[in-house]
UniProtKB/TrEMBL annotation:
One of its GO terms (cellular component) is membrane. The chain crosses the membrane at residues 6-24, 36-59, 65-85, 92-114, 126-148, 168-186, 198-219, 231-252, 258-279. This is Bile acid:sodium symporter family protein. It comes from Bacteroides intestinalis. It is a multi-pass membrane protein. The keyword Membrane applies. Keywords: Membrane, Transmembrane, Transmembrane helix. It is found in: Membrane.
Length: 283
C-alpha cells in the first residue's frame, strides 16, 4: 500500500481542522502586539532552518535525511501547538495567531529553503536531487491553504456547523497523526531502527535548541511569561504531517526515506513538550 494516499487526506483534514480554529481577528493581533508575533516568526522562519542546516552538517547526515531534517524545520506549527499552549497556561491568542501567520508565510518560504537544501545535499554527495518547485507550491496551495481558508469561511458563515465539525475533528486529528506515523514506522522499521541513534539524537537536539532559542528570543524582546511559554512551544513544535506529505508525495520528492526524520520528530516532539508542560504546570 502506498502510504501517500493516507498522508494527503490526513494532512488536508488537519489543515481544515486548523482553519476551524482560526478567525480573521487572529491575523489582526499583529497590529496590537507586533513584538511577540515578530519574535515567533523569527524563531520559526529563520532560527529553525539555520539549526537544521547546522545540525545536519554536525551529525554528517546522509543527503536524504539532511533534506528531511530541513523540511521539518521549514514546516509551520499546527493546531496541536495551540493545545499545548493552553495546557501550559501560555498565551493562546498569540499561539493561534502565530499558527495562522506561519501557516501562510511558510507556503512561500518552504520552496525557497528546500530548493537551497536540495542543492547543498546534492553538491556534498554528488547525488542529483530534484525538487519540482512548481509542484510543491501547487500542493501546498491545494492541501494547506485551501483547507485552511475553507475552515475559516465555514466558521465565519456557518458557526454552529463549524463548532460541531470541530468537536469531531479535534478528537480525530491526533489519532490520525498517530496512524500516519505508525504506517510509516511499520513500512520502514528496519531503517528507523538502524538510524534512531544518530538521527534521533540530532532531532532531539534540534527540538531542545529550538525551544531554548524561543526562550532567548522572548527574553531579548522582554516578553511576559505567558508569551515566553507560547514561543517556546510554537518554535519547538512543527507540522510533522506536512513534512511527511511533501516527502512522500508522488508530485514532489516521492521518497519515503526523506519522511523518516519527520516520523522520529513527531515522537520526540510530543515526549519533550509533554515533559516541558508538566514542569511548567508544577511551577
Amino acid at each position: 500500500m502506498n502510504a501517500v494516499w493516507i498522508v494527503l487526506p490526513i494532512l488536508t483534514l488537519l489543515m481544515f481542522e486548523l482553519g476551524l480554529t482560526l478567525e480573521i481577528k487572529d491575523f489582526k493581533l499583529f497590529r496590537q502586539r507586533p513584538y511577540p508575533i515578530i519574535a515567533g516568526l523569527i524563531g520559526q522562519i529563520i532560527l529553525l532552518p539555520v539549526l537544521a542546516f547546522a545540525l545536519g552538517y554536525l551529525f554528517h547526515l546522509e543527503p536524504l535525511f539532511f533534506i528531511g531534517l530541513v523540511l521539518i524545520a521549514c514546516s509551520p506549527g499546527g493546531s496541536s501547538s495551540n493545545i499545548f499552549s493552553m495546557i501550559a497556561k501560555g498565551d493562546v491568542a498569540l499561539s493561534v495567531s502565530l499558527t495562522a501567520f506561519s501557516s501562510i508565510i511558510t507556503l512561500f518560504t518552504i520552496p525557497v529553503i528546500m530548493e537551497f537544501a536540495t542543492q547543498v545535499a546534492g553538491d556534498n554527495s554528488g547525488m542529483i536531487i530534484h525538487l519540482p518547485v512548481g509542484s510543491l507550491i501547487v500542493q501546498n496551495l491545494l492541501l494547506m491553504l485551501l483547507p485552511i481558508v475553507t475552515g475559516i469561511l465555514t466558521k465565519r458563515f456557518c458557526p454552529k456547523a463549524a463548532e460541531r465539525i470541530h468537536k469531531v475533528l479535534s478528537k480525530v486529528a491526533f489519532p490520525a497523526l498517530i496512524l500516519l506515523a505508525s504506517v510509516f514506522f511499520i513500512q520502514h522499521h528496519e531503517t528507523i531502527a538502524a538510524q534512531i541513534g544518530r538521527l534521533g539524537l540530532c532531532i532531539t537536539m534540534m527540538i531542545l535548541l529550538a525551544m531554548g532559542g524561543g526562550y532567548i528570543i522572548s527574553w531579548l524582546m522582554k516578553l511576559n511569561r505567558k508569551e515566553q511559554r507560547t514561543l517556546i512551544i510554537e518554535i519547538g513544535m512543527q507540522n510533522a504531517a506536512q513534512s511527511i506529505a511533501i516527502a512522500s508525495s508522488p508530485f514532489i520528492f516521492n521518497n519515503d526515506v526523506i519522511a523518516i526524520p519527520a516520523i522520529i520528530y513527531a515522537l520526540m516532539m510530543n515526549i519533550i513538550l509533554l515533559v516541558y508542560v508538566g514542569i511548567v504546570k508544577r511551577r
